[in-house]
Design goal:
Shape of chain B: globular
Structural class of chain B: mainly alpha
Oligomer: heterodimer
Number of helices of chain B: 15
Number of strands of chain A: 0
Largest sheet of chain A: none
Helix content of chain B: over 70%
Distance between the termini of chain B: 37 Å
Number of strands of chain B: 0
């Protein structure tokens, strides 16, 4: 598994073996020098970390990261029995179900729209892409303190006032109806849409123009039909990749939930918008319960893997339906 | 035809406005006085431009913003070129040096891509913590230097590297290290720049890992400092937005200057699914 194995000393045929060995040694040396930093880093921070974490998840490791106090499946049992953890799983499932289709539709729509422009394409592409330069912390800050602030001068409340709602709305604090979802979904939408729009735009630009011309000759004139019969099927691979990335990223949401709902997290009331990662953060860093934290990390990992496999499966079914139909 | 184009422009402008709105809010709020930003009425633009927010943001001793900016600069400026170089080295060796360990090493590297990054932050914290990496600069930097995915991209690039160039180098007496250092690396500038810039952005905007490892204010990054400002009991609003504006300026500038490379990097990294 490691690259540290030296070339096998060929005993018995000294002369030829020595010659071959001399010729191979520079290659081995170069290979070791070039790969060793990466292999050592991945070994320590991935393999050792994950292995240690896995063992730790079967230990009662509170306030310690040492192994030895084995408690079997107790961490997993307690974790899955904790309503706060199962609630965090429901939260992230709901969030994923919202954010994935909305981002997908908006980024694809913007890509089609920008691609149709004759002039100013670069300007609008930059306009939609540049939020990707902003961190989730800054996005959360603007959303919580200005766009959706609970004061009458917040942007959303000023708009609501124009539409006739006199009372200012506490967007982040209101649980019933759960308006904080609007805040959480729109901030991520703003931050990530441009990235996926770039992927779709590149996909669209790779579609040969002859396909569209041929379709027009065959009588497919309307934009809608051209999109359904050419653009959409040709973007299949891009679409599958985008959905996959969107799901993986949504499942690992932390930054915006942590920063927008911080006062709720410390138990001051309001929505319990803990995502699994925030729950794990509090378990491991707050309570110093590294056993339960590690167990949770593996539960989340398994869920992500299952979800992405499921998506691959669904995408596979989509293809067969397409081919048959 | 003309009508269709007018429609496209109308639609694209309707979408562009909300995308630009948050930038406008950042600038407006950063330049307002505390009193004006705290008032109950809507103001399109500050009555008098105030830079007090910037002074307050940098003068706040509880949240050392200038130091946090320095930390973020240091972390990103070290991590971006170093992580890209390490990936390029490994990628070259895996693509071009024919030794028996090549294939197992390749699987060893790409197997790590199956585990999603953020879910492993606790196991990684356990390892880094046991090595004494909490509240250290290396604890913030080193775990983020190893990207299997970047190795994969560089390997793909070097597999397509022209063999004639290498043969010419061999004739000139270059060994594998020479071929890499004198030929392969200098000829992978475009890929290096794209992945390096993406890595810079990622490290500048990272929040979870710096929050976990840099607990002491001395090791706060700019994102952790902003998050601390945001979640204080009494928030100084103009200072909050002034700090945020300063924090995004380097990356917004980078996006405007180097968009070509960033787009190329996004296309490379986005098609991994």
């Amino acid at each position: 598994m490691t690259t540290a194995a030296p070339p096998r000393p060929a005993t018995g045929r000294p002369h030829r073996a020595a010659g071959r060995r001399a010729a191979r040694w520079p290659a081995w040396r170069a290979f070791l020098l070039l790969t060793l930093p990466m292999v050592a880093g991945l070994f320590l921070f991935k393999y050792v970390a994950i292995g240690w974490g896995f063992l730790l998840s079967f230990n009662d490791a509170r306030g310690t990261i040492a192994l030895g106090d084995w408690n079997g499946l107790e961490n997993y049992r307690r974790l899955l029995g904790d309503p706060a953890f199962t609630r965090s799983l429901v939260t992230i499932l709901l969030f994923t179900l919202f954010i994935v289709p909305v981002t997908f539709a908006l980024s694809l729509g913007l890509a089609v729209l920008v691609n149709r422009l004759r002039g100013g394409r670069a300007f609008f592409r930059t306009t939609f892409f540049i939020p990707a330069a902003v961190s989730y912390v800054v996005g959360a800050l603007v959303w919580k303190m200005s766009l959706f602030s609970g004061t009458p001068s917040g942007v959303a409340n000023s708009l609501a006032y124009l539409l006739g709602y006199e009372d200012s709305i506490g967007w982040v604090a209101t649980v019933d109806p759960p308006l904080y979802w609007i805040v959480l979904v729109t901030v991520r939408l703003w931050l990530q849409t441009g990235f996926y729009m770039i992927l779709f735009l590149a996909g669209i630009q790779q579609i040969p123009a002859q396909l569209y011309e041929a379709a027009r000759v065959d009588g497919a004139e309307s934009e809608g039909r051209l999109f359904r019969h050419i653009t959409w099927p040709m973007l299949r691979n891009t679409s599958v990749a985008v959905v996959l990335l969107l799901i993986i990223n949504a499942f690992q949401a932390f930054d915006e939930f942590y920063n927008i709902l911080a006062s709720n997290l410390s138990g001051l009331g309001g929505a319990d918008g803990r995502t699994p990662l925030i729950y794990l953060f509090q378990t491991a860093l707050g309570e110093q319960n590294y056993g339960a934290g590690s167990a949770g990390a593996f539960v989340v990992t398994v869920l992500i893997v299952v979800f992405t496999l499921l998506q691959g499966r669904l995408a596979g079914f989509g293809r067969t339906a397409e081919e048959e139909g | 035809m003309r009508k269709r184009h007018l429609g496209s422009y109308a639609a694209v402008i309707v979408f562009a406005v909300p995308f630009l709105l948050p930038f406008y809010l950042l600038v407006r709020n950063a330049l307002m006085s505390k009193r004006e930003l705290g008032s109950l009425d809507w103001h399109w633009w500050p009555e008098t431009i105030s830079f007090q927010g910037f002074a307050d943001a940098f003068g706040n001793e509880a949240v050392p913003l200038a130091h946090a900016l320095w930390n973020s600069t240091l972390i990103s400026a070290i991590s971006a070129p170093l992580s890209t170089l390490l990936a390029s080295m490994a990628g070259y060796a895996l693509a071009r040096i024919p030794v028996a360990a090549s294939k197992p090493t390749f699987f060893f590297v790409i197997a790590t891509m199956m585990v999603p990054g953020a879910a492993t932050f606790i196991p990684t914290f356990v390892v880094v913590g046991s090595l004494g990496g909490v509240n250290t600069m290396w604890g913030l930097i080193v775990p983020g230097l190893f990207s299997a995915f970047a190795v994969l991209l560089f390997r793909g690039f070097y597999l397509r590297f022209p063999r004639e160039l290498e043969d010419a180098g061999r004739v000139d007496g270059l060994g594998y290290l020479g071929l890499y250092g004198r030929l392969a690396l200098p000829n992978s500038g475009a890929l290096f720049a794209s992945l390096g810039i993406l890595s810079f952005i990622e490290h500048w905007n990272a929040f979870l890992w710096p929050l976990v490892i840099g607990q002491d204010p001395e090791f706060w990054t700019v994102q952790v400092a902003l998050s601390t400002n945001l979640n204080q009991q009494a928030v100084n609003m103009p200072a909050l937005f002034a700090g945020a504006l300063v924090a995004i300026l380097p990356l917004v500038a980078l996006f405007l200057i180097a968009q070509r490379w960033i787009v190329r990097g996004v296309l490379l990294t986005g098609i991994k699914g």
